[in-house]
Structures are given as C-alpha cells and as structure tokens.
C-alpha cells in the first residue's frame, strides 16, 4: 500500500488534462500504463468538452512506489475497484464518464456498483467478465491455454511478452506492437505472473446484472483477448447497455484507431447522446 502521508492519486500518477466541464476517466488494462492513451487524449480535449483523468494502476511499471502493489489486496478486481474509488474521491470528481480497457472494464463495473453516484456512464473496451470457456459460455480460452501462458511467463518472461504482443495486436501496426511490448517489459515479472494468473482465472459474470449505470460495450474485430461472443454475452446481461462494433482489428483501438475511438466516445457521451435511448443498442460502428 502507499504511504499514509502520500495520497493514493499521487502514487498512481493521476493527472487531469483539458478544461472541459465533463470529466472522462481513462483506465488502462493489464501490463500497460497511462501512456496507452497518449494518441487518444488530444482528440478528446481538442473540443474543450472534456477534462481527461489518467492514472497508472499499482501493477504498472510506471509506478515508482514498489510497495503500492499489494499481492493480497490486488489478487482480485475488488482491490483495484477500491483504488479507483479512492482516486476519484481524492481528485474530487463525480459523475464521470469512465473508459475502461481490458481488465479495467470489470473494475469499473465493480466500482459503479459500489458507488454509482461517481459514474455518469461506462465504456467497456475489450472487456471480459471471464476469459476461460465453460458450459454455455465462450470466453475465448481453454483452461489449458491459461496454464501454458503462465508456464511460458515463468520460463522466459521477455520472450512471452514479445510473443503475446505480436499475437494480440494487428501486425499492420508494428509501432503499437513495440509500445505494448515495452510497457509489459516494464512490469515486474514477480507482479506480472500472479496478476495474469488471477485475471485469467477470474469470473465476474455474476456482477453484470447489478450494473445500473448506462454502459457502452465497445467491440473490435478479431480481439483475441475478448472475442465478440463475450461482448454479446455482456450485452444480454447488463440491462442498460449498448453494443458498439468498431471496424478495426485487435485489442488496442486506442492505439490503432484513436480518432475513430474518440468519435465513438463523443457520439455516445456528447450533448446529443442524451437524446438517444441507452439500451437500444447494437452496433453503430465508428
């Protein structure tokens, strides 16, 4: 945990950019850091509609405090959800538009259930409540796939990172592959291995029905980490939700198609969005 004399938001490198009246929170996913949003933020703040809050999760290689990641507290998404709520409180923001990528999608859902007044809406990009397949549910991975992943990470973390980055990102974007690979390499292996194990063995399907905040599920083509079957599953179980399909490939649209993603976020959270009934959903792609 962070020192009691130092605010958690400071330890997590939280900062706000832009001068708009609406606060949009960008939460990065597993293995990365807030630089994941560098290409997206200029498109968001240029309209002067949004203030954009970014931060680094405790596991991130960008966090300087080596004690911030607590292996007990952060062995589940609940610990991260508590961190998120505290950061929002310390930064004195409420009614935020929350954009959660990958594991941060479910973290945002948990935080919104705990403190709904803090959230105006949720955007879940490449999110998944469960990664492994089971009866009647297609998460994208077999249990044996996860065990092989953990084994490869333990055996040679750097080699696994290179292979993983190349497999999860559109190969037409080599600079993005390099960016994600370098971000993962900055994460300590002693944190990365148990965290990946916990994330890929997690199951938060049961919380979806409790999400009351308006929710937009954002799905790309050929997302190896979160296939379309997962997005369709979430759409059926989150009552106040839409499903938005992006005509781009891979798990990182904020890196491969930042302008398209910004247009989608603005379309669904800008002034005109209030005239559209949330829940009618399905699939206007950007």
Automatic annotation (TrEMBL):
Domain AB hydrolase-1: residue ranges: 24-263
GO MF assignments: hydrolase activity
Highest taxon above the source species: Eukaryota
Keywords associated with the record: Hydrolase
Pfam family, one: Abhydrolase_6
SUPFAM superfamilies to which the protein is assigned, alphabetical: alpha/beta-Hydrolases
Hydrolase among keywords: yes
PANTHER family on file: ESTERASE-RELATED
Family: Belongs to the AB hydrolase superfamily.
Protein name: AB hydrolase-1 domain-containing protein
Organism encoding this protein: Trapa natans (Water chestnut)
